[in-house]
Amino acid sequence: MYGEKFGSTYRVSLLGNPLGVIDLDGPWAKQSHLVVAVGVRLYRLAKIPMPNAVFEMSARDVVDACSASLGKRKRNDFLASQGVWLMRGHVDGVEHAGPRDNGVQFILLNPGNVKAIEEIRMC
Fold it and tell me: Which uninterrupted H or E stretch holds 93?
């Protein structure tokens, strides 16, 4: 039931390297040099060729292309092992949680890079 309490919301402090964040809504060409280098290694691990027009693609499309051969868990574990600790971006309408997050989700790949400061009470 939607009205039930599912979990808690916290104000957090982000401690990770800002270069280790993938902006899923942004173009691959605007990602940090760390993310782009990890992306090349991710494609090698997935044993799929890096697209010629990769810098014209969205970061979401670049990252998701490896999910078919690796699966999301292995993909995410690899990204975390290479210094990518967070992915953020808008989700589709099925996952949208309404006014609480405006459709923006954060995928935390390394919880050691976040410190909870306080719980936020939701009505």
Answer: none
How far is it, in rounded angstroms, from Cα 61 to Cα 101?
22
Beta-carbon neighbour count of residue 8 at 10 Å? 10
Tell me the domain boundaries of the chain: 9-120
Q: What are the pLDDT tens digits along the chain (123 aa)?
A: 445 556 677 788 889 999 999 999 999 999 999 999 999 999 999 999 999 999 999 999 999 999 889 999 999 999 999 999 999 988 665 455 555 555 678 888 998 988 989 888 766
Integer Cα distance of 88 and 106 in angstroms: 4
Residue type, 112: G
pTM of this structure: 0.80
Cα-flanking dihedrals φ and ψ of residue 37, to 5°? -65, -40
Q: Give the residues across from 22 on adjacent strands.
A: 87
